[in-house]
Design goal:
single chain; alpha/beta; seven-stranded mixed beta sheet; three-stranded antiparallel beta sheet; 16 strands; 40% helix; binds pyridoxal-5'-phosphate
């Protein structure tokens, strides 16, 4: 054990109690309002949240749904993607991205990620569209891998940072593809569009976007929740129907839909939290800047890369290091929580074995997945806690560097572990 301090002062990877203590009165008042008016599904509280979230994202429509997965599924279905179509995404994301594509009846195919931002590589996307697809006689873009038509791209704004949307939208326009943003980790993230010459909010650039309000997200409910954002009136209308049993009005069903609504208790809680999201995101950005300066001299740690066109909201603070497992063990024994987002890229998951991808198909995603580690990151993380995280990482790196210098190349992992 390191110090008594470590025992007393455990640092969680994510503290979900702190924001709820901060807002206790507002949250309880929101629950009372819904309970006492007994308007539990739909109604004014949900509509109020939809309006405020649309304003926050700078879009015309926000349709509240039951989860981020459903948001993505409904957005894909409503965008015109047909069953059997190919939707291109990345292997370095949560499986919900590809689950939603499959649940919409489409087939995910992957392109590799960018080595520095960990988001969709636009050069790999271009290579996929240009070299691994062909136009058929009716002008449809056909994937060589599956022989199916490619109709959409789902870039994921991973860890709170937007993918390079200008390049993705230009390629989509060139090849006639729909773009649906997976913004489930990026509430409030911004992107400087060189094409539009202005900063754009996550969720406002694609045909539609999906957000998750899973509790640990930058804007989290006290249960499940999600939203589709869009400026497309028809798409909004379709999502509205899909989330509510395909109803246009009560008991008039144009299509078969789903039970995919956000309940009013969650909407009330989200209404109470939304005004604080800007401040919470700013606190995350400050913490990220502080981590960057604390790791400035540390050669064993690669900090997140934020291009000049990006303003990340640091849903996760993901560093990269060789010796990842040993560092995680070291931090755990010092009472510091960490996360892994994600340890196995989707193309190598058992669930997708039938897709016949192999190790080596997406080398950047594979390499990154072996070296990333997510450090504590939440708005209430204190300067003292953060300094201790950095100190423990420094201690570990120092021991590792000396062990390596001692020339114990092969045994350096073991050595570092035994002296930690
Ligand atoms: C990138 C990404 N996409 C989709 C989802 C799905 O959201 P939910 O858990 O609300 O269904 C998540 C949630 O973790 C996510 O991180």
């Amino acid at each position: 054990m390191h110090t008594t301090d470590a025992v007393l002062d455990k640092i969680p990877f994510l503290d979900l109690v702190a924001p709820h203590v901060e807002l206790e009165h507002e949250l309880l008042a929101a629950c009372r309002r819904t309970i006492l008016t007994a308007n539990f599904v739909g109604g004014p509280v949900v509509e109020e949240f939809e309006k405020s979230f649309a304003t926050f994202c700078n879009v015309i429509h926000s349709i509240a749904v039951s989860s981020g997965t459903d948001a993505l599924r409904f957005a894909i279905m409503a965008s015109g993607v047909q069953p059997g179509d190919v939707v291109v995404t990345v292997p370095n994301t949560f499986i919900a991205t590809t689950e939603a594509i499959s649940q919409a009846g489409a087939n995910p195919e992957f392109v590799d990620i960018d080595e520095r931002t960990y988001n969709m590589s636009t050069s790999k996307l271009q290579e996929f569209l240009k070299e691994h697809c062909t136009k058929d006689s009716s002008g449809r873009l056909i994937s060589h891998r599956s022989g199916r038509p490619v109709t959409a791209i789902v870039p994921v704004h991973l860890y709170g940072q937007m993918a390079d949307m200008d390049a993705i939208l230009s390629l989509a326009a060139e090849y006639g593809l729909i773009v649906i943003e997976d913004a489930c980790q990026a509430h409030g993230a911004e992107y400087f569009s060189r094409n539009l010459n202005c900063w754009m909010k996550a969720g406002s650039m694609g045909r539609a976007a999906a957000f998750s309000f899973y509790p640990g997200k930058n804007l989290g409910a006290c249960g499940e929740g999600g939203a589709v954002t869009t400026n497309d009136h028809n798409l909004a209308k379709k999502v509205n129907m899909l989330r509510d049993h395909g109803q246009v009005k009560k008991y008039f069903h144009d299509v078969e839909g789903y039970n995919g609504r956000l309940d009013a208790l969650q909407a009330g809680l989200l209404n109470a939290k939304l005004p604080h999201l800007g401040d919470w995101n700013a606190r995350r950005r400050n913490l990220a800047a502080e981590y960057a300066s604390l790791f400035a001299e540390n050669e064993c740690v690669t900090i997140p890369f934020e291009p000049s066109w990006s303003s990340s909201v640091y849903h996760l603070y993901v560093i990269r290091t060789t010796n990842r497992e040993e560092l995680m063990d070291h931090l755990e024994s010092a009472g510091i929580g960490t996360g892994l987002h994600y340890p196995v890229p989707l193309h190598l998951q058992k669930a997708y074995a039938s897709m016949n991808y192999s190790r080596g198909d997406f080398p950047i995603a594979e390499g990154v997945s072996e070296e990333i580690i997510s450090l504590p990151m939440f708005p209430q993380l204190t300067a003292r806690q953060q300094a201790r995280v950095a100190k423990e990482i420094r201690t570990f790196s120092g021991k590792l560097t000396s062990a390596m210098r001692a020339g114990d190349e092969e045994g350096s992992f073991v050595h570092a572990k035994s002296i930690a």
